[in-house]
Amino acid sequence: MATFISTALCLVACVLLNVQGKNELVPTYFARKYKNGSYIDATIKSNWLKITLRPSSVLLQSSNTATLNVHPSLVKNAQYVNVTWKGVENASADDMIALYCPETSKDNDYYDFFNVNQSSTYSQGYGEYAVRLYNVRTNCEMRYFRCVNSSTGQQEFVARSNIVMFEGGPEQPLQIHLALTGKPTEMRVMWVSGTDQAPIVKFGRSKTKLGSVAEGKSQTYTADDFCSLQGKFIDPGYIHDVLLTALEPSTVYYYSCGVTGHMSSIRSFKTAPQIGPDVGFKFIVYGDHGILPAAYSTAKYVLNDVKNGYEFIFHNGDISYARGMEYIWEQWHALIEPYSSIAPYMVGIGNHEQNHIDDSGKDPSGVKGDGWHPWWGTMDDDSHGECGVPMFYRFHMPDNGNYVWWYSYNYGMVHFIMISTEHDLSPGSRQYVWLQEDLRNIDRSRTPWVILGGHRPMYTSEIDPENFVVALAFQFLFEDLLYHYRVDLAFWAHYHSYERTCAVYKNACTKDGIVHIVIGTAGKEADWPPYLPPNWSKFRRHVDPYGYGRVTLANRSALHFEYFVNSEERVVDEVWLYKDN
Ligand SMILES: *[C@@H]1O[C@H](CO)[C@@H](O)[C@H](O)[C@H]1NC(C)=O
Ligand SMILES: *[C@@H]1O[C@H](CO)[C@@H](O)[C@H](O)[C@H]1NC(C)=O
Ligand SMILES: *[C@@H]1O[C@H](CO)[C@@H](O)[C@H](O)[C@H]1NC(C)=O
Ligand SMILES: *[C@@H]1O[C@H](CO)[C@@H](O)[C@H](O)[C@H]1NC(C)=O
Ligand SMILES: *[C@@H]1O[C@H](CO)[C@@H](O)[C@H](O)[C@H]1NC(C)=O
Ligand SMILES: *[C@@H]1O[C@H](CO)[C@@H](O)[C@H](O)[C@H]1NC(C)=O
Ligand SMILES: *[C@@H]1O[C@H](CO)[C@@H](O)[C@H](O)[C@H]1NC(C)=O
C-alpha cells in the first residue's frame, strides 16, 4: 500500500514537474561544441556535413600555395597533434579541415572535421588547432576545404596534409584490458590490433625475464553483426584474448602482449587472492562512464587508486556510450587503458549497450526477437542497433553465466554477481533461474559477503517517473530472491547521480536488508530531477556528482564503502556495513 501511494505521488509530482527524458548525446570524434558550449550530437545525421565538391579551376590550382601540416607526423595512440595551415586565399569561417583514416578515403568518408574559425587568425588564411588522434590501425591525413557557397555548402579542395603514422603501426597492441575468471590462478589479457597473427602474452615474475608464453585467439566483428547500423561503423581490428593459467595467487606478474615483433611495453598485474573468509581487499565501482571530460577526471583518480592497491574495477553498465558511433569505443578504451592494463576491468551491460528494437535475430545474448520490452519498462533503442555486439567481442567475463550479460565470480571473501537489467528478470526466466541457482550455491563459509551489480536500480528516490516504475517492478520481481539469499550490497547506476539506502527490504529499513547504492556518476552528464524523501534514502547527490565508489573488505564482518567526488578530491559519503558471522 505504501508503495502504491508513493508511486501515485510520484506520478502526480512527476507529471506536474514535467520531467523530460535524458538526451544521451554522442560527441563527434573531435568532440566539437556549439558556441554555447554544448556538444554537437554525432547521432543526429544532419550534424554530419556532406561535402559537395566544386572542381577548382585550372587558374586557382596553379595559384594555390596553401599548405596544411600535422605535427608531429608519427604519433602515439590518443596523442594531441597540432594542425597548422597557411597561404589559404579567401578563407571564411565555413572552411573546414577534415580527418581521413586511411589517407585514401573518399572526401565524404571523413572521421570528423572542424571549422577553421577554431583559430582566431583563420580569415588571414593561416591558423593552428590541436586535435587528438587515435590509432585506428591505418595511417591518416587531413584535408582543407574552402567553402565556396555557404548557402549550398559547396566546397573546394585546397590542401592535403602530410601522412600521419602511428607509433607501432597497425600491429601495435592497443586497448589492453585484463579480466578475472574467478580462479586466482588465472588472468585474462585482451587487446586490439590490426593483425590476426597468433596473439601471445609473455609473462613472468621478474620484469627482466618474461619466461612464460601463452597463446590465444583473435576475433572481430563487422557492421553486419549489429542488429542494425544507425551510426558510423569503423573496423574494430582484431580483438585478442589470451588466458594465463597456473599463476600464483596474490602475486605480481609482469607481461607484454602482441605478436612476435610487435609486443607491447611491459605492464604488471597482481593475481587475485585465494578465496576465503578472511581475505581482505579493496576495489573500485562505478557506472555510466563515457568519454566526456568528467569521465577523464574519474579515470585520473581511479588510476591513482589502482596504483595504490585497489585491485579491480567493477563497472556496472553504460560503458562508452558509442551508440553506433564506433570511434567512441576506440576513444573510451584508450581512456581506461592506463588502469585496465594493470588491474582487471569487469563490466556489466547497460541499456546503452544492449537495448534495441530490431527483430533481426542477431542479438548475441541469445534472446529472441527484439529483446526484453516489458510494458512497464523503458527498454527502447538505447544502443542504436549495437545490441551488445561490441561488448560481446571486446570483453570476456567469467564463463559461468551468459557471457558479459550475467556471470559471477569469487574474489577473496566475496561472491560477486553481475546481472543484466536489460534481460528478463521475472521468476522462471532464463536469467532468474540462473541467478537463483548461483545464489543457492554460494558457500558463505568461504565467501561470507555477496555483492551484486546491475544497471537499472531497484531503489531510487529520484523523481523520474518512467525509471521509478522500473525500480518498483524490480522490487516486485526479484527483491525477495536477493533478500532470501542475504545479498549484502547491490550496486546500480543508470541515474547519473549517487544514492545510498539503509539496509532495506520492501521499502523499510531492516537490519537484514540489502544496502543499495546507485553510483552512475563516472562521467555522463549529471541528472537534474529532484528527489522524493523516502526514509530508506540515506544520502544522495546529483549536483556535480562526478566520482566513483571505493569498497574495502576489512574482514568477514565488516565492509567499508566510500563515495569519492572528483571535483572535491574527497570522500563525501561513507558507510560501514557490519554483520555477525
Ligand atoms: C546550444 O546551441 C545548440 C545549437 O544552436 C542548441 O541546439 C542547444 O540546445 C544549445 N544548448 C544550450 C544549453 O543552450
Ligand atoms: C602544439 O603547439 C603548441 C603551441 O603552439 C605547443 O606548445 C605544443 O607543444 C605543440 N604540440 C605538439 C604535439 O607539437
Ligand atoms: C579570392 O577572391 C577574389 C575576389 O572575389 C577572387 O578574384 C579570387 O579568384 C579568389 N581566389 C580564390 C583562390 O578563390
Ligand atoms: C565557426 O564557424 C561555423 C560555421 O560558420 C559556426 O557554426 C561556428 O559557430 C563558428 N564558431 C565560432 C567559435 O565562432
Ligand atoms: C550559392 O548558391 C545559391 C543557390 O544555388 C545561388 O543562388 C547563389 O548565387 C550562390 N552564391 C554564390 C556566391 O555563388
Ligand atoms: C519507512 O517507511 C516505510 C514505508 O513507508 C514504513 O513501512 C516504515 O515503517 C518506515 N520506517 C521508519 C523507521 O520510519
Ligand atoms: C573487522 O574489521 C573492523 C573494521 O576494521 C574491526 O572493527 C573489527 O574488529 C574486525 N573484526 C575482526 C573479527 O577482526
Automatic annotation (TrEMBL):
Catalyses:
a phosphate monoester + H2O = an alcohol + phosphate
Q: What is its EC number?
A: 3.1.3.2
Q: Which Pfam families match?
A: Metallophos, Metallophos_C, Pur_ac_phosph_N
Superkingdom per UniProt: Eukaryota
Please give the Gene Ontology molecular function terms for this protein: acid phosphatase activity; metal ion binding
Using the UniProt record, give the first listed, main subcellular location.
Answer: secreted
GO cellular component annotations, sorted alphabetically?
extracellular region
Q: Which residues form the Calcineurin-like phosphoesterase domain?
A: 282-498
Which positions fall inside the Purple acid phosphatase C-terminal domain? 513-574
Domain Purple acid phosphatase N-terminal, first and last residues per copy: 173-271
Keyword Glycoprotein found:
yes
Segment forming the signal sequence: 1-21
Instruction: Please state where this protein is localized.
Output: Secreted
Q: Which UniProt keywords apply?
A: Glycoprotein, Hydrolase, Secreted, Signal
| Transmembrane domains' residue ranges | none
* Annotated family: Belongs to the metallophosphoesterase superfamily. Purple acid phosphatase family.
Summary of subunit composition and partner proteins: Homodimer.
Record's protein name = Purple acid phosphatase
Q: Which organism is it from?
A: Paramuricea clavata
